[in-house]
Amino acid sequence: MSDLSGKTTIVVGASRGLGHGIATAFAGAGSRVVAVSRTAAPFPEPAGGAGSTVPELADAGDPTVAGSLLDRYRPEVVVLAAGASPHMRPLQHQTWETFSVNWQTDVRIAFHWLREALLTPLRPGSRVIVVSSGAAMAGSPLSGGYAGAKATQRFITGYAQDEANRAGLDITFSAVLPRITPLTELGRSAARAYAARDGRSEEEYLKQMGPLLTPEIAGSAMVELVRAEAASVAPGYLLTGAGLKKLP
């Protein structure tokens, strides 16, 4: 997988934020990228015509979409970066509907795509990356069930790896947990809410976090992870502005 030329990568949630940066990076590395999203988005032309981007407008949470697209494109790489923006409120100001939105969206998407990756199955040597969140470790008291949903994404990614191993499938599954960044819509909303909760400015709140994670850094990190030897890949990683760090 060190050479992505001629390989097919499906990026789910490719229209914005980290997902857009990831799709752009894989196309730049020579891959044919199938950019799955519910809304259309422009993508830069890869330098030198290295790779390409094929838009697929679809609801990734639809239980029929994952199997259909995996059958049609037969990818070597799948990156799941789609999810809902949580309702930023303290617990007592949540309703069950707002509290559970990420369970109904993020976890549902991961479940359907991981299940289909095992059932299809993906071809030997394939890689699957689930983009979870650093909130899965640190918690997120202003975002309802978001942190728990993201932790569940990490858990079921591990379950998928166990099932692949039991079935003798040569597929590598990893969960990547990005740290909050104001360079995405979700991150901007969260930074604003937590800064206000702490009585600080957004600038002060973000300064404590060190180098900011950008979509470009996220894209480069995902390409680096896919190009690594499968035997060296960890089940989980923290992703910050400094890059990937293996989780215990």
TrEMBL record:
Keywords on record: Oxidoreductase
EC class: oxidoreductase
Pfam families found in the cross-reference section: adh_short
Protein name per Swiss-Prot or TrEMBL: SDR family NAD(P)-dependent oxidoreductase
Enzyme Commission code: 1.-.-.-
Assigned protein family: Belongs to the short-chain dehydrogenases/reductases (SDR) family.
Gene Ontology terms, MF aspect: oxidoreductase activity
